[in-house]
Each structure stands twice: as C-alpha cells, then as structure tokens.
C-alpha cells in the first residue's frame, strides 16, 4: 500500500474491498444454484426419465465437470481481462442452461444442458471470484477468501428451501425455468458493480515479488501444484458422498425428499460457519495446517454416517459434517497464495478448484455406482473415507517438506 494515501477507500483491506467482497458473496450465492438444484431434484429426475441411480447421478457429474473446467479456463481469463465479462457470461449460460434442461425430453439432453451450460455458467461464481477477491486483501486475505467461498454454501442453504417451496405447486421443470430467470435478472447488475480493477499494489505488496506469502515448501511450484490437485481430488471424492446422495439416501430410508433437502441446508449452513472460522484460522496458522485439521474432522464425520441412520441422528451427523468440512476448499486458495507465483493466481487457484470439483463429480458418480452394485450406501461411505486418507497424507507430506527446507533457507544454502 506504499505511495497511496491512508484515506484512499480503494486500497487493499479498505472500505471498497469489503463492499466488493459483499457483492462477490451475493454473486456466488445466486450462481451457486447450478451446483445444488440437480441434487434436490435427483429423485424426480430419476422417475421422470426412468433411469437407475447411477444414470440419474450423471447430470450432476456432468455439471461438476463443466464447473471444474470452467474454473480453470475462466481463472486464466480473469488474470488477463478482469472478473466482469466472465460473470455476465455466467449469468447468460445459467439462464440458457436451466431453460434447456427444463424442456429436455431425455436424460442425454438434460445431462448436456447441465454440463455444458449450467456447469460452465456456475464456474465464474466460484474460483474466479475467489481469486479476484484475494487481490483486494492483504492482512485479512484468509478471512476474505473464506467469505467469498461461503457464497457457494449459502447457495446450498437458500436454494434447497426455495426449490422445496416451488415443488409444492410446480414440477421440477417449471422450477428450473424460474431459477434460470432469477439468475439472469440478479447476476448481471451485480457483476457491473465489480468493474474497478484491483489496486496496483495487489501483485507487488510483498518483498519477494514472485510469491504471495513467501512460504518455503521444499518443493518446486510444479510439484506442489500437482500435490494440491491430487489432494483436492481426494478430499472432495470423500465430501461428495453426503452432499450428493443425502436426499436419495433419505428417500431410500423412507424419510422422503424434504428431510434430505433440510439436511443439505443444515450441512451447508454449518459449512458457512466452518469456512469463516477456517479463514480466521488460516490467517493465524496458515493454509496447510487449517486444511489438515478440516480433513481430519471430515474423515471422522464420515465414519459417523455408517452406524447412525435414524432421522434425528442423520440431522445431527449432517450438522457435524458441515462444521467439519466447510473450510477445506477455501484453504487451497490460501495455500496457493502462500506458496505459488503471484501473477498466476487466477489460473493456479482455478486449477486447484477444478480438481476439487472433479473430485465432487467423480465421487458423486462413484457413490451412485457403488449403490447400484451393492444396494447400499455403506460401501460408498467407506470409499469416501479411503480418499480422505489420501488427502490427509499429502498435507502431512507438504508440512514435513516445508520444515526440512527451512534450515537450508536460514543458512543461505
């Protein structure tokens, strides 16, 4: 912030930065509909198109693949041209995607609409927004990144309730049309509020010049990026089991759609709290430790789903799950900012976010396939736990690699 007057409202951590963060949270909450709607209507879609559980899970998988690829591509675009054009394109894609899905006569066209239009449309409201927000904060970067990522979970709180209300008087197709219209009407004006470019100090605030936090990892940028991609895949294969299949799980247990939708709202609402706490924690102890703590807690919560399947216990475990895992994904963005080159923030954050989303897509499909093969979700929970252990192992390895490198740095070797 050197060279800028203290009273300048547009400096990092200044009043405009917080206003911009609030707009970004709203955009992420509205655009996040693309992730959650298909989960809520999964049982209706399965019945409407006459497919099995794995087939009904494919539209969600396609959505997440489109979402993942879009995070990386649009992250590169944001590095060069700013956040406004991709967010406006996102709104138009979402509007068109929900409309096409609503009139789809078969599962194939419905899957294409979910993946190509809705998935890509949702992408600009996650990783690219998080990367953009990170340029506006220095002292409170971890908290700001966590807040921006929380919009994705606020969507999981608000949209299931809206969809449940809409399904009382409309079918899922009419609900899709309504959501598509809302995305366009709300997102375009919000995007225009983000036209100001980041402050000039955003990429040069730190003495090292080529990293955001200057943290030693003992690994090359390429090796660290690869490990983060694998870790992101592992944690989100595990995370996807309750988030994608809890509604179908409740239907199988005889509880119906409504409790499952409530559990998604509960776990994502708790996830918002978890993300905010993890952002505060990351500013204190760093992204790797914060992520490792979240991963251990998520693994413990997944174990609890196996013996407890009563309605009250499922609500409680879903709450514990949300409080455990919410801070994991935004911690990756903090790690990128601590260890990797500054001027590539958009694409590097986007690449890691892409891996987490692909993990959700792979895990959602794998859980459906395991259910079809075994007739139960118990093995699917165990599969998620195994992937969670992979994530934990990588975080421990990064921590030990960083510790080994510090003596060499301190002595100038």
Please characterize this protein's 3D structure.
This protein is mainly alpha-helical and 413 residues long. The chain has 16 helices and no strands.
Q: Which runs of at least 5 residues are low in confidence (pLDDT < 50)?
A: 205-213, 408-413
How big a fraction of the residues is strand? under 5%
Question: What is the straight-line distance between the termini?
Answer: 32 Å
Q: Structural class from helices and strands? A: mainly alpha
Which outline best applies?
globular
Number of helices: 16
Helix proportion range:
over 70%
Salient structural properties:
413 residues; mainly alpha; 16 helices; disordered C terminus
Could you give the topology of this structure?
Blueprint: H1 15-31, H2 33-40, H3 42-49, H4 53-81, H5 84-102, H6 107-123, H7 127-134, H8 141-169, H9 172-192, H10 221-252, H11 257-285, H12 287-305, H13 311-325, H14 328-339, H15 345-374, H16 378-410
Helix pairs in contact: 1-8, 1-9, 2-4, 2-6, 2-8, 3-4, 4-6, 4-7, 4-15, 5-6, 5-9, 7-8, 7-15, 8-11, 8-14, 10-11, 10-12, 10-14, 10-15, 10-16, 11-12, 11-13, 11-14, 12-13, 12-14, 12-16, 14-15, 15-16
Sum this structure up briefly.
With 413 residues, the protein is mainly α.
